[in-house]
Amino acid sequence: MSTRTLAVVSAGLSVPSSTRLLADRLAQAGVEALAALDLAAAVEVVELRGHARDLADNLVTGFPNTALRTAVDTVTGADGLIAVTPIFSASYSGLFKTFFDVLDKEALTGKPVLMGATAGTARHSLALEHGMRPLFAYLRAVVTPTAVFAASEDWAGGDRTGAALSDRVRRAAGELAALVAQRPRAAVADPFDDPPPFGTLLAGL
Fold this sequence. Notes:
Blueprint: E1 2-10, H1 18-36, E2 39-47, H2 52-61, H3 66-76, E3 80-88, E4 91-92, H4 94-101, E5 112-119, H5 127-138, E6 142-143, E7 148-151, H6 152-156, H7 159-182, H8 198-203
Parallel strand pairs: 1-2, 1-3, 3-5, 5-6, 5-7
Antiparallel strand pairs: 3-4
Helix pairs in contact: 1-7
């Protein structure tokens, strides 16, 4: 069975976090949807909360430290991305935006992305469409038609509300799995495949 990698970016600030809870549900659903297509999945989670200072340093220096570089490589090297943020003041969090600000502008080109968001009230649900979708369109990612928003009542609103969230999660995960399955896997470049001639190296000394 061929394996695909799903990177999960969670921008939750608290521990535990409803943002991480939604991210985990989307990741599990993504694994199950890929399995239905005879594809195994490896999930790698990036918790932005632990990189808040790293991101600030990157903004002012222009360079990521080792920990942030690992997180960036996890996201850029994955076959698919699940990105989940809390909504503050009707838009994604600053921490979430900062992470995508430090990525190379070509890093997500063509990458399948499933968007998710959480907030205290459903009034914020349109932030997925007026905030997050334009962000990933600018980065030229391929975003699933279904985005998943979870308000407080989705976690504690009874069977009907919980079932509605589960349906959205499954539908979005199925769309992500289909996009991941269709996308050719990127070849990993070997820096030693095409070494410069020895004479060229000597000429540079």
